[in-house]
Fold:
Amino acid sequence: MKRKPEYVVVTCVSQFRNRYVIPVDELQKMNPDMPVDPSWALDSVTCEEVKEFSQRHIGEQIIDAQVLREPEVLQFFDADNDYLTEWDEEFKLAWINHWKQKPSEEEEAKFEEIRLKHTSAKSDTTNTSSED
Structure:
């Protein structure tokens, strides 16, 4: 019996440093009867009322890594990408196996062939014609 492929799943947390800038005069307008308190800005940021001023990626932290068999990886795929559950298993596996940032021309061509097959199969099921 052929053994199903295994995959290494690496879980990370990506972190960003965000900055928000609010004019002090505008903060004062939130409560004109009190001396301005810079902590009022914290509430505004928490409530997502402030436009982002800048952002910088500060890195990824690896949380864990585990080896999973194909059925478990496909379960992860569907759980993490619930908007793609209509993809068939062949295309999901092709997408998973197309993991390199810079695949070779051969690897890219192989994936593109499967992608086109999947795209045309999907359009075939959505195109309906009525015959009179």
Summary: The chain has a mean pLDDT of 91. The CA atoms of residues 28 and 35 lie 7 Å apart. The two ends are 51 Å apart (CA to CA). Residues 105-126 form the longest helix (22 residues).
